[in-house]
Design goal:
The chain is mainly alpha-helical. It has one domain (about 5-320): Orthogonal Bundle (Farnesyl Diphosphate Synthase). About 75% of the residues lie in helices and about 0% in strands. The protein has 15 helices and two strands. It has helices spanning about 5, 10-25, 30-40, 45-55, 65-90, 100-125, 130-155, 160-185, 190-215, 225-230, 235-245, 245-260, 265-275, 280-300, 305-320; strands spanning about 90-95, 95. A two-stranded antiparallel sheet has the order 1-2. A hairpin with a 2-residue loop joins strand 1 (about 90-95) and strand 2. Helix 4 packs antiparallel against helix 15 (about 305-320) and helix 11 crosses helix 14 (about 280-300).
Length: about 325
């Protein structure tokens, strides 16, 4: 199964979206136009626009509101990534230099603000206040989730339920917004739109747990191992291992994460302890559980090529190797 096959029900619409998105990024300020051109060139797999357009196609033809929804989600998502790189002091994203690495923090923050304002203007200009409400809810939750994680990470004592709260807000809320904004662009029933939000939220939870697993995975994954440990992020495999190991091992892991996470051999030690402590298997089961809950919600919607592609897209992303 390839992304090109999954895209088939919306292939032409994705091309139109790309054109609209490029237009939405343009500016008469040469420096800003250069930076937004750079952003467009390094686009990823386009999972979020695909989720928007496939969710829209579930309930009707894709017209102007659906393109607005896809552009709005992508503009706000891109704005949060630019700001995240500043917050994390990250100089690389998807193998490319980050905006702050090339143009420094001050300009990166302003670029993020510009993208955010473009999203707001796009929705107001097209009188899509409902779409703006859906996506703004996600941005609010993302900020809250990030701050909750920062607050809890200082003590390295995140319980499983707090972890799920964090990833629901930080990651799953934007996936939920992409799906429900797509649905809201072709369906006026609030109950259905809310059910699509729940579907997207389940996908987002599974996506994030898949990402957690990469940090401890076998050597053929695309992401370097131990990045989350180095950043002192409490992920599900690590949380499970800490809760189910003996006291001395727990103290050893916490000591390394807190004080020695910059040493490759110490990080490798934690990875081996998590692999041997059942954390990988536990997290994988949780990922498949959320994925199945998403499929159960998806099956309540009318059967169509778009529904089949949504199912395949969720499978593709949760089974990906990088």
């Amino acid at each position: 199964m390839s992304l090109d096959t999954i895209k088939q029900p919306i292939a032409a619409e994705l091309d139109i979206f790309e054109e609209r998105f490029r237009d939405a990024m343009r500016s008469h300020v040469p420096l800003l136009d250069k930076i937004t051109w750079y952003i467009v060139q390094r686009k990823g797999k386009q999972v979020r626009p695909m989720l928007v357009l496939l969710s829209a196609r579930l309930f009707g033809p894709i017209e102007e509101p659906s393109y607005t929804a896809a552009s709005l989600v992508e503009l706000l998502h891109t704005a949060t990534l630019v700001h995240d790189d500043v917050v994390d002091d990250a100089f690389e994203r998807r193998g490319f230099f980050s905006i702050n690495a090339l143009w420094k923090n001050k300009i990166a923050v302003l670029v993020g603000d510009y993208l955010l304002s473009q999203g707001l203007l796009l929705s107001i200009r097209n009188q899509q206040v409902r779409l703006l409400e859906i996506v703004s809810r996600a941005v609010k939750e993302m900020a809250e989730g990030e701050l909750l994680q920062m607050e809890k990470a200082r003590r390295l004592d995140i319980r499983e339920e707090i972890y799920f709260d964090i990833i629901r807000q930080k990651t799953a809320s934007l996936i939920a917004a992409a799906c429900s904004a797509g649905a809201a662009s072709t369906c006026s029933d609030p109950e259905i739109v809310q059910r699509v939000w729940a579907f997207g939220e389940k996908i987002g939870m599974a996506f994030q747990i898949r990402d957690d697993l990469f940090d401890f995975g076998t050597d053929d994954v695309g992401k370097p191992l131990g990045i989350d440990i180095k950043e002192k992020k409490m992920t599900l495999p690590l949380i499970y291992t800490l809760a189910h190991t003996d006291r001395s091992t727990r103290r050893r892991i916490i000591h390394i994460v807190r004080n020695e996470s910059d040493q490759a051999d110490k990080v490798a030690e934690v990875i081996q302890l998590v692999r041997g402590g059942g954390g990988m298997e536990y997290a994988q089961e949780a990922m498949y559980r959320y994925r199945q809950e998403a499929f159960d919600l998806l099956d309540t919607f009318p059967d169509s090529p778009a529904r089949a592609s949504l199912r395949d897209l969720v499978t593709f992303v949760t089974e990906r190797k990088k």
